[in-house]
User: Fold this.
Amino acid sequence: MRARFGGLLFLALAATLPLWLRDPYFVAILTSTGIFIIAAISLNLLLGFTGQLSLGHAAFFGIGAYTSALLSLGFDVDIGLPSPVVVDPKPVWIAFFGAVVVSGLFGWLIGKLAFRVRGAYFVIVTISFAEVMRMVALNWVDLTEGPMALNNIPPLSVLWPGHGLTALVTKSQQYWLVLAVGVVCYFLVARMVRSRLGRALIALRENEPLARSVGVRVTHYLVVATVVSAAIAGAAGALYAHCVRIVDPDVFLFIYTVTMVIMVVTGGKGTLAGPVVGGLIFGLMPQALRGTAPPEVQWIIYGIGIILIVFFLPRGIVPAFADLARLRMPALRKPASLVR
Amino acid sequence: MDQILQHALNGVVLGGTYALLGIGLTLIFGIMRVVNFTHGELYAFGAYLAYLFVALLHLDFFLSIALAALAGFALGALIELVLLRPLRSNDIDTVMLVMIGAWIALQNGEQFVWGGVAKLVPSPFAQEPLVIGPVSVAPLRLFVLGATLVLLVGFYWLIDRTRLGMAMRATFQDRDTAALMGIDVRGIYTLTFALGSALAAIAGALLGPIFLVNPTMGNLVGLKAFAIVILGGLGNITGATIGGFVLALVEEFGAGYLSSEYRDAFGFLVIIAVLALRPQGFFARKARVG
Amino acid sequence: MIKHLWMTALAALFAVATAQAQETIKIGVNEPLTGAVAASGTYVTNGARIGAEVVNARGGVLGKKIELVIEDNKSNPKEAVDAAEKLILRDKVPVMIGAWSSTFTLAVMPKLVEYGVPLIVETSSSGKITVSGNPWVFRISPTSEMEAVAFLEKLDTFNPPIKKVDFLSVNNDFGRGAAAEFAKALASKGIKIGVTETMTPEATDLSAQLASIKKSDGDALFVTTGVEQVTLVIKQAAEQRLTQRIITTGGAFPDQMIANAGPAGMASYHILFFSPWSADKAKYPDVAKVYVDEWNKKKWEFAGLTEGFRGYDAVMTAVEAIKIAGKAEPDAIRQALWKTKLHGVNGDIAFIKQGPEGKESGQSVPNVYIVMLKEGKVTQP
Assistant:
């Protein structure tokens, strides 16, 4: 009950923020933080609920960004067919959902391929996948413009009563867009982990042989989780493309995956609120440190921060606080639910 | 034909250093079950030390490489003692996160100390290439090849012929039994990590003078070391040696005859292909998936 | 009453504090200080620092000191956009300098229109920048086309004469643009064009590209990329016994090869926009001398002067425009830039109009020099 009230309060604060905080720069930072939080929510589905550490998650994010950008800009590319493939610019929302679908398809492919192997192998396959994607984005200049980046990507637009089709260009509009997509993704994941699929995934994470023996179709569920996770990451990438309005091959960099992992792990993997809390901390911290410390010192602090969190808060911030609250107020103690 | 020989020669020179990197990483994984993300940083660390000793302190080039190796050994031991030993009982993912944290801190530490501008390490060798029949090679590259071959042979001798090597192999096969037999398993872990790190640092100190030294040089190399390890099978030293040479030759010929721009992608395509076709690696008889 | 007094005093204090904070005029600097082209970006930023010091030592502008707000764009177009937004929204700079690479500058350009802040482009060479109809762009560096045309006049310094050329370029706007423009200009003189190879900005092993260039029977190789890759290309070309003379474009100079010379007899040529080895031959030697002296006082890398002047000239241009505008406001500065004329380290700086009518960008016409680097010695052939 309290948690729900806190959640609603948080949502109300977040939704009205651009009205009482009139600093466009801060709103812009919250927007880009929000995009990464969505990506972290998708990673949490894999890392937190299935226990599979995907270190190529930036690949799905980047594929979403490139797909949406390319569909909305249009492209023509010669792939050895008799005539070059020509795609005319599509409306931005079609591009957006195209990105979700394409990312999901790649998720299926990687899920099928990677779940033949587990543990360290899975990690390395996902890293390699992201790196190959980066090389393609860097070198397939006809399609992706390579290091020259895709530029002038159109913004997303909505039907606004009284204004017709309005392009979302101001910082506040983009903020609300990201918030709306974020809320949808949050509840989608919440719904999933509470469903039969979610229970299967958790059973799998906790004891795979046992889950198998009682008839849980392991590979099937893992692939479904990967597809959904990749699709949400793709949506985050598409938001990125239409808000930042420039996409370059560096979106595939390993460091972005690492940023997502840090957000999930510090917040608390396997908790719904974890990626949001971790995302806010690690999205806003660079701005707080900006000016006080050079970027490399910030990153040194991050690196040491990860180590300290693993050592002292191995389950993350959200579970630690939940424990603390339960200790303080015995009335709130209740049996640990299946979804931590 | 000249081109083929030239590519082969370039590939073999590069392959030697790849093999050093691969052996270090595979040893650490095989014995400790640690996915070591700091490996590429130890490589960069070695290269920067070569720069420090040779260009700034004007020490002897060969002495500098030896010192870089020693420093790599010490840093590796330190990482093991401070970060890995306390987490011995944790699962592989937790340890991996700690290594990612250490990787980020080390890389940015290098950037903080040395700045973002790439450095050139001078070498005492003549700049004129040696011309051998149809091919040419810089004397420095020949030295690097010689040094890596000596190191590879030395390492095999260490693993195969010494009591220490036997203890390491025993730990690799069965940690608990090894401990029961009176082997100091904790000591073996520290030594393994330090040795692997020293190999990475030497590879950096050797390749640094051929290319340029910069703070992010370890990223791609670290990922390639993973490719080599996968190619050879996790924990397989012979596999890693062959894998190092294979990857270098694939890159060199791929760049020469397929696409010079996708050069660095070949390694990762190899990983995906290997894992799709033969997840246990090409040189392992028994599967070690898990 | 007493409380009221306190409030007044406090308010007065705040007024003084903000007035002091406003004593400076900010100039945004958006340069790559880390990543693939960090060396050049660092030199340009250092040049800008010197420019600011020289201006402030002379009493600043409009009675105020100038303050550089330096942001690292990490050799990445998206980060360049972020840096620009930070400079505009957070620091509220009325004018910016940047963003080194054509790719970064092109990425930043829509933001100039969105927020209405002028950008003085100090390095980028892509023709696209000044013809796309962006009235907030003022470029003091030459386009690749200008550089290529200026190079034609120096063709007779090469003996034996150049008959067939090959290209090795970084695969971005800078590299591809330069290869295209030089090929066009050289072809107009009847020079044959051999192979054109590209490389990614962070590639370190260029043996495959060089092998394919070696097979071509050209006698000159034009290399267009940042300082780091220029250094690697020259080293690796020597190892592969390339017969082509190497000519670098875009003002990159492999400064570390002065202390670590290539093999005996091997020479490379570099198209520069300022040659510190012959600063007395610059168009305005007195201007160049102030810059060179200040740089040397800091004991910075001597060869960095070749690129550092860009930042110096850009700051001087911004300051002159602020002086003409009479106030540090973006649109006033933009209008003043059209009237700005000054003596820079490179030579005369003044803007001509380029691009579609009504939305023209400013383009200055800089000078071009060629130096030869041989066995660690630099000469002007």
